[in-house]
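Deviations from the work plan: none for this task. Representative record:
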Amino acid sequence: MNWRSKSKQRSDGEKQNTAGDNYLKWRKQAQLLRRGSRRTVPVPSSLNVDDILSSPFSDVVRWIRSMGSTNKMRGPNCWTARVGSFGLQLIWHFIHFIISTCYFVLGLADAVDSYVISSGLLKKYNDLNLGKLRYLAIGVDSDEARQTSKVIKLLQWLSDIGMKHVCLYDEEGVLKKSKDAILEKLSHVRLFEETDEKLPLDKKNMNLELASPSDGKEAVAKAANLLFTKHLELKSATEDQGENVFTEANMSEALRALGCSGPEPDLLLVYGPARCHLGFPPWRLRYTEIVHMGPLKSMKHGSLMKAIYKFTLVHQNYGK
Amino acid sequence: MPRHVAVIMDGNARWARRSAGHEAGVKSLRELTKLCSEWGIGVLTVFAFSSDNWVRPKAEVELLMGLFERVIQMELENFMREGVQVCMIGDSLNLPKSLQKLFADAEEMTKNNSRLQLIAAVSYSGKHGIVQACRTIACKVKDSHLELEDFGERLIERELETSCSEFPCPDLLIRTSGELRLSNFMLWQLAYTELFFVRALWPDFGKAEFIEALLSYQQRQRRYGARVS
């Protein structure tokens, strides 16, 4: 493998964001498959050959198919091929059964665990110490964020647990568009404004911040613009090479001036199929704990409690 | 296979006190480099030392700087033989002069190697990297090497230190020792990177754990190839 020779095939000066490209291609494929499932095409009882062809066993399956299609074969070779084909299909079904059973058992265990936690039978989850969790962020896959009812239910759970400051993020700004629908259903939730930071919240109220990529990389680019303007002003006055203007503190200040500088979350829970942070504002992720919770449609109250409880046990050294 | 794998090598001090943990960590790094090279992964970035680590006890910091020097000296011949290109990202001004020179020499000697690009993040901070990119752009405009009206995301991405690689954004991030955070590592570049957090401490991270991480990455590629329901 020569990564350099592969890179020559690309246009000069163009660096490839393969992680981002791969993610977008994968999401598109996922959307196409999901749309297909909505047509309620009955699932054949036999194995889905296209799924198998995309699996590690593709070579084996192609060989099986070729065995089946060689009707012209005669005599002992034909019988041997048919027996071999049958045997391999049997092995494939058996492995599929074992793996499906394992996933079923794991899913069942997870559901039972979640039920036990939600029912209050385990004392340690009843009285969560939220002192360390001052700011919680939730990242939601944009397709799933369109299920506003699920988002509202999640916020209700967080409010019941006692969370006071929550940031909701998705990579297409869907949640920002659903702002009114969310606030209409949750009367005790109010939108977070930076000026309100220091106002005390009573027991029931919760501050909600809605974020999107415009608060992340786009905001950093705009903040850099502001600093650049300041740098140009110093151009003629001093020989400053930017060291005094382009600093982390000034960048934070510029983001604040743009209204894009919310607190760094202590914990980010990601709901979606992909185990990544979906482009959450990078300037705020320095020491944030990130936990992948699975798809939003399968969210469970017990899993949420467990994730928050585990966070309360974490000890951070912050580099020391 | 992912084209770019990034690793936060955490847990050396917990594995063993004094230098033993870090020495054992070097063996894990050696093995991972070899596996990446054999399995066709183009870029491996390792988080060796954070800018936040300078606050550690002076003795530990000196031990680590000495270890980095020894590793580069010992492994340079292997890198040349195995076709590994060495790059360093981070604020090198804080490093001892001897280490700065070693890194510069290693980069120069291995610049034509093409089998694997090994990027060592030393004295590195994700936030500082973003600020540094903005500063570079500003200087280029001021010196009229670059004409632009506005800063944009793509311009910042092009000036980040990781643009020394053809694949600046990792496809897979592995963090050992069970911690679930980025710790100021590649904050800009990790937006869509598969995050794999493993309980094993870095000196215990071997082939089996790496295969598990790669399978996790590949399952994400195939997650919607499962039976529809």
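Strands of chain B lie at 4-8, 43-50, 84-89, 116-124, 172-175, 194-197.
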